[in-house]
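agent> Task received from the user: take the single chain below, predict its 3D structure, and emit structure tokens. No templates, no multimer pairing.
agent> Plan: (1) validate residues, (2) run structure prediction, (3) serialize to tokens, (4) report one or two observations.
agent> Step 1 OK, no nonstandard residues flagged.
tool_call: predict_structure(input=
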Amino acid sequence: MKDLFFNSALALLFGFIGAAIWSYSGLADTRTKAYLMDNPQILPEMAEAYQAQEASERLAGVSDDVVDGFPGAVMGNPKGSKVLVKFSDYNCGYCRSAHADVKKLVASDPEIKVVLREMPIFEGSEEAARMALAAAKQGLYAEFHSQMFAAGPANPASVRAAAEAAGLDMVRAEADANSPAVDLELLENRSLAEALGFGGTPSWVAGGKAFEGAVGFDALKEAIDSAAS
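)
tool_result: status=success, residues=229
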């Protein structure tokens, strides 16, 4: 796996960053390769920088759409000045662990607004995503969101239990969960994720940065604070 990463990073660098290395170092192709082989520690840093640049460029074209989420599908302050967007799936274990980080963020700063983008990609999670958006229409998104993660794997029984625990009007919720508005939201979320190059969940947007993974509380806070500064 280490060799695979090294070779992939090397190919990436020669394809997209080689010109920059030539410009700054004056090395010919063979000497550039030798330099990289002798200094492999720079490869992950350069690959990460390139990927971050690519993500920023992709985000520039859809940034307004990304932060303008489904009405009510938020945690924290709905009018907060510090905005974090999370693409999430209820059957994603990493999303569950990241939920604790999001709750901690919200508790730490009254200016944080977390926009939730439901992106069901795991088997059995679409019903939960639909119910979450139905909960948003009743002003109970945050309650359902937390109850659903606490309930464990998403399935018909756990979705209903979470909805009832959150206090949803179940007749209305079941109708809203299958409404055209919810259909459209799920399609839009997947389209936005593809436009941003996201390959899974959780994925995030903060300011001009788009990134993936359960990166932890500190990294999320840093991304939010840097975007607000």
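agent> Step 4: summary for the user.
The first strand starts at residue 74 and ends at 76.
agent> Done.
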